[in-house]
Amino acid sequence: MESTAYTDVTLRIYRTLRDEYGFDNLGTVIQAYLYRSREDMRQLADEGAHIRLCKGAYLEPETVAFPEKADVDEQYRQLVEDYVQAPAPAYLCIATHDEAMIQSARATVARHSVQRNRFEFQMLYGIRSSRQLELAREGPYFMRRLAERPANLWFFAKSLFSR
Ligand SMILES: Cc1cc2nc3c(=O)[nH]c(=O)nc-3n(C[C@H](O)[C@H](O)[C@H](O)COP(=O)(O)OP(=O)(O)OC[C@H]3O[C@@H](n4cnc5c(N)ncnc54)[C@H](O)[C@@H]3O)c2cc1C
Q: Which residue of 7, 54, 79, 123 sits with most ligand 1 atoms within 8 Å of its CB, as the best mutation to test the pocket?
């Protein structure tokens, strides 16, 4: 998702590919800093859209986007909350490097018992790589390995402290 000059057309392309061309492996991006995003996200969640939620990277005027980080963060938290409570949420990509957003999203998915195969964390390649690994290890594959072989807990603990 790029600047607001392209938000409508980007969403239109997404919906056209999905509904007219039958692509079922598509998602779209929502930028938490835009005022319009709560409504866009609500509609997309109702449509069962797979969404990547980011804060937004472009310089936008105050008429369309929250200028203050605290408000962007608040809307980010709210959008995660809204999406997981929608009637048929499909899949949410929580795209952020911000630990506060990660912790808040983790608490939200836990509170609403969102299945682990219904969301993921995303970061840009090379940024916070060790945190990426920790989050990935919390996934179902990792938990299964621990359950199968409790001795793996020791290897996991050692690798955390050796980083
Ligand atoms: C997978 C992915 C896809 C994206 N796609 C889009 C898109 O389509 N359109 C768009 O507008 N934007 C996109 N973005 C960018 C996004 O909107 C933000 O601009 C960008 O992620 C920075 O915001 P943040 O949530 O990481 O946290 P910020 O609010 O920038 O930072 C908060 C805190 O996070 C930590 N942090 C942030 N960056 C770093 C870093 N580089 N290294 C270490 N710690 C850091 C720091 O503790 C920082 O104080 C994407 C981001 C990701 C991860």
A: 54
Q: Is the CB of 120 under 6 A from ligand 1?
A: no
User: Yes or no: is domain 4-122 CATH 3.30.200.20?
Assistant: no
Helix 129-137 vs helix 99-111: crossing angle, to nearest 10: 10
Q: Measured between alpha carbons, how far is 162 from 116 in angstroms, rounded to an integer?
A: 27
The pLDDT tens digits for 75-125 are 999 999 999 999 988 999 999 999 999 999 999 999 999 999 999 999 999
Annotated domain spans of the chain: 4-122, 126-163
Question: How much of the chain, in percent, has pLDDT values that exceed 90?
Answer: 81
pTM of the model: 0.88
pLDDT at site 148? 56
Do residues 29 and 1 make contact, with C-beta atoms less than 8 angstroms apart?
yes
59 CB within 6 A, ligand 1: no
Phi/psi of residue 124, nearest 5 degrees? -75, 150
